[in-house]
Structures are given as C-alpha cells and as structure tokens.
Design goal:
By secondary structure, this protein is an alpha+beta fold. About 35% of the residues lie in helices and about 20% in strands. Strands 1, 2, 3, 4 and 5 form a 5-stranded antiparallel β-sheet that branches. The longest helix has 18 residues, at about 40-55.
Amino acid sequence: MAQPASLSASEIQQRLKALPHWRLENGAIVREYQTDGWPTTLMLVNAIGFVAEAADHHPDLAVSWGKVGVKLWTHSAGGVTASDMELAQLIEQTALWRPSGNSALRGTKKKFVGS
C-alpha cells in the first residue's frame, strides 16, 4: 500500500476554507470545540473516537472541562494529508450536528457543542 502524500501549505489553506474553525499549526490541522460541561465533553470525545476508529485514522485529543482540542496529521506522511482533511470534515459534521427544522427529533435545549 502506497504511503499517503502530504499536502502543501497552500493546498491545506485552500481546503481549510471549507472548515473555517480549523487552522494549520505546527504541521497539523487543529480545532478546539467548546462544550457546556464535562458530560458533553465526554460525549464529544466518544463521538470523535467512533468516527476516527471507523476511518482507521486517529487524531490527538486534548480533553478538559468544557473543551476538546483536536489535532490531525498523518505520521507516516510527515504532514497533513487528504485523509486528515476528510476526517476533520467528518468530525465537524458530527460535533455540530443538530436536527433540522423539519425533523421529528426535537434536539436539546442545551448549547451542547459550540463552534
């Protein structure tokens, strides 16, 4: 299996336009999510863990009360790859998902995870 190719800084910046809260920092793409407290922080960590494990691509997480930091890069490529960008998009969709206006799901009254 071929090693994934790392993206150039300009390619990363172009792709980050679709992920406005993510940024390139020290050779990785990073994002912090604010939560409404410890239980939500743990739920977010588990949700990220689930999609990362399903993708077989694993971020570094920094976990504290009311906050989850996510850091993605591909060790074997020595930088950010298309896999990192795709997983960042999936994490973003998962973390910020809310029922739509026409959904039978009512959603939580809490702020839950914020951008």
